[in-house]
Design goal:
By secondary structure, the protein is an all-alpha fold. It has helices at about 5-25, 25-30, 45-65, 75-95, 100, 105-110, 115-120, 125-150, 155-165, 170-180, 185-210, 220-235, 240-265, 270-275, 285-305, 355-365, 370-380, 385-395, 400, 405-420, 430-455, 460-470, 475-485, 495-515, 515-525, 535-540, and strands at about 315-320, 330, 345-350. Helix 1 (about 5-25) runs parallel beside helix 4. The two termini are about 25 Å apart.
């Protein structure tokens, strides 16, 4: 008869070794979760190092597989599966999608100083010293990229690598300004000069050597795409099943938009134009966003949609300069291991004073009040910020505090947009629902473009037309969305996750939670951020994990 107590102790030790091993490859991920013993570390992405990492991961997977079901409680059997995915996901990137051999972004995007500047988890001096260590390691990291990347590289990957790399020097300069708070700007300035030189050499190589030889070949192909669904989300259902669900959701959203247009006696284009005309001034963008944070929090509390763990404080700030090219709005939440604060930072990208009046007006129209309110639902209440407050206080195991499913994280936030409309947010007019449907159509098209581009031979031109025709996008933003699908096939996560949550709600809301949305949502968020392939398994078990 197995010694269950000894087996569980063995599993606890194995869990810690696996998590430590994953963070050795992804130290910035650990920092974002609030594990600051990884501060100042960059990964060693040399071929020898990652091959050694992969071999060790194989061994850890072997140890996991040798633990039988009889050795573990039901909850720890689920944790064993999470640990398997935690290892298989980076192994997929290394061996199957070959990210480090074909994608410059894998190197350029490994450098981020944001966590050290925006969260007051330690004295400024300690955080600045971590920044200096990162900057000092940049040249070696990017030099390794030049050695490892094998041209010809996919052209969209090269172009975005250049764009991300080009944003690093301003990011480094911002860190030098930050270091002035501790009178340590000279130390950061010296490290910044070395880092800037490393970035410049990397960008010159990408522009001169890689861009002219780049290829349009980017697709994962059906087999690797199916593997991606499993290692990221624990999904084994065929790709076609996901595609059909996306088609159905697109049709549902289009039908509702057409119904609203008939009610309003207007063309669909006119519905969007009406939204665009109702926008804040440049000076009022941030105050308007803050007012929507307060409004949506009150809405969640008044409707009893989900518990708001206290203390809950979210402040709105302008997106840092280095992040404005790639972000309209974003959330910097507290990590599950962050002991310093539960404050959330909701970033909104302001008007650039250097833009022409026409450009400024176009940006403000895209941040019209209805769209900005919908973004606030997604990013703050009851979306990402509230989600991460639950994640922060979760009593789950180590792996459940570490595992972050993209489709659960983004799926929850996208689901809450629809939830808010269902529960009557701004129901006195159709404006809020039109904004919500606009974003839903975009996310439906992302799923269909991802499947098409990577498994069905869809061209960039065809993907662009999909966004123009079905999501009502102008050509330039439609083209950008299509290009994003080449290097980010996982942008299927918004719709995939939303539909998984809706399906689970239809199955379990009445039978397990007596029709209480608050109980259902609290239970769901209490699981952490699990792969959506596990949602029904988790919900079918005890309501506490």
């Amino acid at each position: 008869m197995p010694d269950t107590k000894a087996s569980l102790a063995e599993f606890d030790a194995l869990e810690q070794r696996i998590v430590d091993h994953v963070f050795a490859l992804q130290p910035s991920y650990a920092v974002s979760l609030g594990l600051h013993r990884y501060d100042g570390m960059l990964p060693d992405l040399s071929r020898a190092s990652t091959e050694s990492w992969a071999t060790r991961a194989d061994g850890l997977l072997g140890e996991l597989s040798r633990l039988g079901d009889a050795d573990l409680t039901p909850a720890r059997r689920i944790d064993r599966f999470l640990l398997r995915l935690l290892l298989e996901s980076p192994l997929f990137d290394l061996r199957e999608s070959e990210e480090l051999d074909r994608n410059p972004m894998a190197f350029a995007a490994s450098v981020s100083l944001t966590s050290y500047m925006v969260r007051d988890y330690a004295p400024v001096e300690d955080r600045v010293r971590a920044i200096v260590r990162i900057l000092e390691g940049v040249p070696k990291l990017l030099e390794e990229g030049r050695r490892r990347l094998r041209p010809p590289l996919p052209r969209p990957f090269v172009e975005l690598g250049i764009a991300i790399g080009g944003g690093l020097p301003p990011h480094f300069l911002e860190a030098e300004t930050f270091a002035g708070r501790a009178s340590m700007a000279p130390q950061v300035g010296a490290a910044r000069a070395t880092a800037d030189a490393g970035v410049a050499a990397f960008l010159t190589w990408l522009k001169d050597e890689c861009l002219p030889r780049s290829t349009p070949d980017f697709a994962l192909g059906p087999h690797r795409y199916q593997r991606l669904l499993f290692v990221r989300e624990g999904i084994e259902a065929p790709i076609e099943e996901m595609r059909r669900a996306g088609v159905a959701d697109l049709a549902r959203n289009q039908a509702r938009l057409a119904e609203i247009a008939r009610d309003e006696k207007a063309e669909v284009a006119e519905l969007f134009q009406r939204l665009n005309r109702d926008h804040p001034t440049a000076a009022d963008v941030i105050p308007t966003a803050q007012s929507f944070v307060d409004e949506t929090r009150n809405f969640v509390a008044d409707r009893g949609l989900v518990t708001i763990p206290e203390p809950a404080v979210c402040r709105v700030e302008e997106t840092p300069v280095f992040g404005r090219a790639l972000s309209t709005a974003s959330m910097n939440p507290p990590g599950p291991f962050d002991t310093s604060s539960t404050v959330g930072i909701y970033y909104v990208t302001p008007v650039d004073p250097a833009w022409t009046p026409v450009q400024q007006e176009e940006w403000l129209r895209s941040l019209n009040r209805s769209m900005l309110r919908n973004v606030t639902v997604h990013e703050v209440y009851p979306g990402h910020y509230l989600q991460f407050l639950h994640f922060h206080r979760s009593a789950g195991s180590l792996v459940r505090k570490v595992y972050l499913s993209p489709s659960f994280v983004e799926g929850w936030a996208h689901y809450t947009e629809q939830l808010a409309i269902e529960q009557g947010l701004r129901h006195e007019s159709h404006a809020a629902e039109i904004a919500q449907i606009h974003d839903a159509l975009l996310r439906d098209c992302r799923l269909l473009a991802s499947v098409g581009l990577h498994t069905q031979g869809m061209t960039l031109a065809e993907a662009t037309q999909l966004f123009e025709r079905e999501a009502h996008f102008e050509h330039l933003p439609a083209e950008r969305e299509a290009i994003r699908g080449t290097f980010n096939p996982e942008y299927f996560c918004y719709t995939l996750g939303k539909l998984a949550i809706l399906n689970s709600r239809s199955r379990f809301l009445k039978s397990r939670f007596s029709g209480s949305l608050q109980q259902f949502h609290d239970a769901l968020l209490g699981f952490g951020c699990p792969p959506i392939g596990l949602l029904d398994t988790l919900l079918a078990g005890p309501t506490t994990s």
